[in-house]
Amino acid sequence: MSQLLEVSGVSVTFDGFRAINNLSFSIGPAELRAIIGPNGAGKTTFMDIVTGKTRPDEGRVLWGERSQSLLSMSEAQIARAGVGRKFQRPTVFEDQTVADNLMMALKAARGPLAVLFWSPKPADHSRVAELAAEVGLGDALARKSGELSHGQKQWLEIGMLLAQEPQLLLVDEPAAGMTLAEREHTTRLLVELAKTRAVVVVEHDMEFVRRLNCKVTVLHEGSVLAEGSLDHVTRNPQVIDVYLGRSER
Amino acid sequence: MRAAVAALVLVLVSLLPLAALAQGDPQVSAAQIVENNRAQIEKPSRQTIGPVISALAASGDPQAVDILTAWANRGLGLRKSDGAFVLMTETADGYALRLLDGTDAGTAARADITELRPNSGVRGVIANALVQFQLTDPDRARRASALTTIARDPAPELLEPLRASLEAETDPALRAQKDRLNRLLTLRFDPDPAARIAAIDSFSGDLGLDLRAALNPLLATTRRAAPQGTALEGNIARELDPGSDLTETEAYDLLVAANLAPARLTPAELKAALVANIVDGAVAGIPLAELNTQAARNRAYTALEVAGLVPIAATDEEVTQSVAAHRFFETYAEADASVTAAASSVLSGIEIKLGTMQMADLTLDALSLASIYFLAAIGLAITFGVMRVINMAHGEFIMMGAYTGYVVQLFIPNYTLSLVVALPLAFLVTFAAGVAMERLVIRHLYKRPLETLLATFGISIALQQLAKNIFGTQARPLTSPAWLDGALTFNDIVSISYIRVAIFVLALLFLMFFLWLMKRTRLGLEVRAVTQNPSMAASMGINPDRINMLTFGLGSGIAGIAGIAIGLFAKVTSELGNDYIVQSFMTVVVGGVGNIWGTLAGALMIGTLQKGIEWFNPSNTLAAQTYMILFIILFIQFRPRGIIALKGRAAGD
Amino acid sequence: MTRTFLARNPSVLIFLLILSLFTLGVTVLSEAYGIAFLSTSFIKTLGKTLCLCLAALAMDLIWGYAGILSLGHMAFFALGGYMIGMWLMYARTEGIVITALSNEALPATAQEIQNGIAAQIFGVVGASELPGVWLFAHSLPLQLALVVLVPGLLALAFGWLAFRSRVTGVYLSILTQAMTLALALYLFQNDSGLRGNNGLSGLQNIPGLDGVSQDRISVWFLWASAFALGMGYLLVAWVVSGKFGSVIRAIRDDEARVRFLGYSVEGYKLFVFTLTAIIAAIAGALYYPQAGIINPAELAPIASIYLAVWVAIGGRGRLYGAVIGAALVSLLSSWFTGGRAPSINLGFYTINWVDWWLILLGLSFVAVTLFAPKGIGGLFDLLQGLRSPDRKGAPLGPDDGALLEKEAKE
């Protein structure tokens, strides 16, 4: 069966500390997956490896139908290949307008010269307006993104991710700091997105994960502890140990 | 009968003074020799006086030594009343006189005596002649000084007296010295090759400068040329291949010098010859306007040669032919092949040892440079490494320390005491300056490192100009105490000045101080805590403001002490800091930020590198610095975080 | 939405208008073409100032927009000057040598002319042969190409090395400073082929213009400098106005995030670094014929730091700010250090500005950094009544190099 992303036998060590230990993980082309795990389980490092920020000491990370290795690619190349990443903290370019932010993220040639001579077509403007409307920023196009509220920034960032049209979305704790209504909106959006592309959600909040209603991977000490439906993994005694503290053996 | 002979001799001597004297007739007294060569002695010249002095020395008359000594020391004069030579001893109101035979001649006023003042060349010849007497002089100091004279100016005729004096020498040190000198003179001047070779071999393994000075002339070579097919004359060092060992031009110049080929025309000479032969606006039928290429000028000259108007000169082809028709070789100045072979084998042994010694010396140099960079950089490593603050004014803190030392010396003339006062004072001054700067400027810029760089740069130019306004642009001395003068000498090659040793020790002390401070004290613990996580540290009751202030002050204070160390061997100017700031930054960056061992490694690397490059290209320290910086830029490629890098999350990216 | 570039950036038009009026005004006041109110040397100073403004524009693009504090752009400036200086010196010496040789009985050979030039130029460093770097010095077009190529390629090579290894922030600044120092030290050597610390001189004499007086040439150079500055301003304004400008400002504020958008940050930095190096080099090529002399001291790292100082005082991140800063500070500098500023007598001490100007500059620089991060350009915001939202001074991006909110508002 063809997988979109296949991570196998990956390990990485920081100053003697094994952050990721022989981790294997794969996800299909249109799948929603939640990754949970206690602090220090290696969730963020895992994302760093997939997006090219951290180079693993060993292992393979293969991508797409042609099974390209992501390990030899730079962050920008990986992003262009179709991996989008949303950070925990909203990171938008606050000095620039919402429209500029979205325009920058819009799928187009990324080389310096191409960008220098690029000028927006009417279609691009309408696409930006459309995206802004989709994330609820339709009337804020000309505002500086630094003036937006925290939630609005999150939406802008998601809008930018959508503009990139990635095949795989890595989302780091999307629900952090959101109101209940915003969470529900987010859940609907993620489920909707996962129909056309792969979405990996890293999350702490079990309730949120339950609402996503998808396959769950539990990470612990840098490797996969359990995988399956949320109900399945929450019955796993090891997972209970990890989350609730180890009882007497 | 005797009187008659003496009279005859006297006549002969007066007729042929030098010839007679050269025989060293024991019958002739020193006084007579002097008398007979009156003209020469009154107006001596270095070129011609030699035989007279030799005759005196060889006369066997014990008075001769006195006369020669007096002459050399301007104690020989002429009594104006009768023109007699007298030996003079200065007294309060004139001279006490003796005649040349030693008899007392009363006193004389200064005005009555014409002093003889031989020039230094002549005095040198006299000194050489006296050496043989001094070698056996009962006074040890005189014997020692004679040996020094011989060593400085060895001559073949000194060999015999030296050997003769060897057996009688009682002082062991002098005996050894005499023996060494004897062998040195033997290897150069002994007529017997076997003795020379033995002398050379006896030096195997020796490194002395005097030995190298004695051996090198033996191996000096001259380039010569000879026609192909003839046997090469002389003690051949090696044959030269034109084109690889020497250029064609050099080869041809040798031929011209040896009269084996006609001289080549320089373009200027050619031009002059053509100009001299301009006839009706043309040279040899070629119009002047066409003579604007070298080829046309050559054609014109050849035409003139054919017409016999100018001397034949070698053309380029002839030069090539002549060079091909000759052999070129180097011969030793020393004729005896076995001697040169022995000398070159001993010398190459020396060279290998010398190379090792030079490496050792270079290592010492590099180490001392490294400790200077370490001292200059350690304060920076604290401010930049621990606080991530670029302090462009760090160099000016170094300068401030150096000027503090200078000012203290103005008030405390005792150099040792002033140094003792200046070191802590410099620390205090720059500590205060650092704390003030941190409070007033840097505190507000912690999140904006690029602007810290520029703001501290503003402070740097202001401080530099302020120093110029106060102390002027000329260099001020910071004198080291006498006990730091001189050098720790291991042998002729390996030595290091005491100032540099002191700086090395100072650097070590600071390394230990820093380690102690960071690892063993409360302050160090708090500094490390603030470095890693300021807000967490703050919530645990540490005041980050206070820690930052102290850390910055400490870094600046150490810069002040480094300033004194640097001022001791470099002149104190307002640009003192400028010369070290880039190297200091390089040291910190190359070593790796946030780690004292990294700074040490960086200083060692940069010091070694700079000395190493200087060794390859000693004439050009500018080029050495250029290449060093290029190397560092490349080095950053491979280790962007420095030699000792923090990895992983601690690296903070 | 699809307005033209100039319509979207009215400040460019205003700038060009002011620049034209300035040039016209100076021409009218000049000795050669007007009422002779301004001396030739002052017109030269103004022309040089325009070149410095162009260099400051380049600095603003690389620092104010892309966030790279390069301490090496004056090295590119000086390199541009060296490249044009080589032709100026060669061509002028050639004329002198040919005149001298024409008095001789034989017409000169090419080799003799060459030797004569070499002896004239390099006698001062004890050499008599033209070094290899002077290979193209006889040709103006080739040497003009080198004005762009040499600094451009140097910037490309250095930038490639530095950006590839992800050296950023203060590290990069120090590295560029080291590069500048290395270049200066190299040029200080006599055997660098560029006359060591003597540098190149007599550059104000333009070959082929022997009959034209300096007061005319000075105005011509003023025109050329003004034209170059205008073109440079247009180019830079165009570069920063579109998506490219968005990307480089984004790189300044959060370069990691830009990578995850799929832009190769290194490529953009390299492009901007090289482009600005070339702009600086062109500015230098116009500057040194007006200055008349160039030597390695012009490359000293401190010159590049001054460039940063001008931009910071003028207000980085806005193009007119860089121009204002460079013009104001460099003119003030020459006024103070030229001894023309009146001394201040305090009774117990007389402040002689030649000695105290640097202190004033250094301290005012600290003050600008601390209290007016927007520089003089910030005054324009005050005039327009623009205020930025108060975000308690939080940085705009997570990177330490990012702008703070209060200084980012344009």
Automatic annotation (TrEMBL), chain A:
Record's keyword annotation contains Protein transport: no
Origin superkingdom: Bacteria
InterPro entries linked: AAA+_ATPase, ABC_AA/LPS_Transport, ABC_transporter-like_ATP-bd, ABC_transptr_urea_ATP-bd_UrtD, BCA_ABC_TP_C, P-loop_NTPase
This protein's UniProt keywords: ATP-binding, Nucleotide-binding, Transport
Xref: Pfam families: ABC_tran (PF00005), BCA_ABC_TP_C (PF12399)
Any GO molecular function: ATP binding
Annotated ranges, domain ABC transporter: 5-246
Coiled coil: none
Listed Gene3D superfamilies: P-loop containing nucleotide triphosphate hydrolases
GO CC annotation: plasma membrane
PANTHER family linked to this entry: CONSERVED COMPONENT OF ABC TRANSPORTER FOR NATURAL AMINO ACIDS-RELATED, HIGH-AFFINITY BRANCHED-CHAIN AMINO ACID TRANSPORT ATP-BINDING PROTEIN
Protein name: Urea ABC transporter ATP-binding protein UrtD
The organism's taxonomic lineage, starting at the top: Bacteria, Pseudomonadati, Pseudomonadota, Alphaproteobacteria, Rhodobacterales
From TrEMBL, chain B:
Biological process according to GO: amino acid transport
GO molecular function, one term: transmembrane transporter activity
InterPro entries: ABC_transp_permease, ABC_UrtB_bac, BCAA_transport_permease
Keyword terms, alphabetized: Amino-acid transport, Cell membrane, Membrane, Signal, Transmembrane, Transmembrane helix, Transport
Keyword RNA-binding annotated: no
GO CC terms: plasma membrane
Endpoints of the signal sequence: 1-22
Topology in membrane: Multi-pass membrane protein
Keyword hit for Metal-binding: no
Localization annotation: Cell membrane
Residue ranges of the TM segments: 366-386, 418-437, 498-518, 549-569, 581-609, 621-638
Family: Belongs to the binding-protein-dependent transport system permease family. LivHM subfamily.
Record protein name field: Urea ABC transporter permease subunit UrtB
Organism of this sequence: Pseudotabrizicola algicola
Lineage summary: Bacteria, Pseudomonadati, Pseudomonadota, Alphaproteobacteria, Rhodobacterales
Encoding gene, per UniProt annotation: urtB
Automatic annotation (TrEMBL), chain C:
GO cellular component terms listed in the entry, alphabetical order: plasma membrane
Tree of life domain: Bacteria
Residue spans crossing the bilayer: 12-38, 50-68, 74-91, 143-163, 170-188, 217-240, 267-287, 293-312, 319-336, 356-383
Membrane topology, as annotated: Multi-pass membrane protein
This protein's record includes keyword Iron-sulfur: no
Subcellular location field: Cell membrane
InterPro entries: ABC_transp_permease, ABC_transptr_urea_perm_UrtC, LivM-like
Keywords carried by this UniProt record: Cell membrane, Membrane, Transmembrane, Transmembrane helix
UniProt-annotated stretches for the region Disordered: 390-410
Annotated GO MF terms: branched-chain amino acid transmembrane transporter activity
Pfam families named among the record's database cross-references: BPD_transp_2 (PF02653)
Protein's UniProt name: Urea ABC transporter permease subunit UrtC
Organism: Pseudotabrizicola algicola
